[in-house]
Amino acid sequence: MERNDWTSLNGGDVFREEAKRRGMSLGDFGELCHNEPEVDRSLDELLKQRMKGTDGADIVESRLAGWWAYRLNLPCLRLWLDVDDEERARRVAHREGLTVEDALQANQQRAAVDGERFRVLYDLVPEDPEPYTHVIDATSLNASQILEHVVALLEALQ
Known about the structure:
The chain has two domains: 62 residues, no CATH class; 83 residues, no CATH class. It contains seven helices and four strands. The strands form two sheets. The chain has a two-stranded parallel sheet with strand order 1-2. Helix 1 crosses helix 2 and helix 2 packs across helix 3. The mean pLDDT is 89.
């Protein structure tokens, strides 16, 4: 991002900022969002507001950013990075210090919970390719390779 002076917005940062603003731990705030869907919706509205306008970020990373950009008719690339379940579990296990088996189980549980939440709140499935202009199989790519792939897509538009 530095090489192009791109600005970025991470949906997780929005979550952390709101937890801090409310004086809550991340765990407590996550529980609040789970128990009170309107809090979850308000976070997504905040993310959408920060995506729009002339001061919107150049790059937005969030599980639903592609959907929001699609529904807001924002003129941009909307990318879904796909990783097979085993590789995703290996990456989570490495990052979180878990066994691959535990990470695989945690990923499956999160996908089920998130899938139901997004279906109830917004009538959507994050993995549905409808809103995405590009789906990238990132199973065998590292972060630098993904960036180079995305930069090539952006340069092809110019």
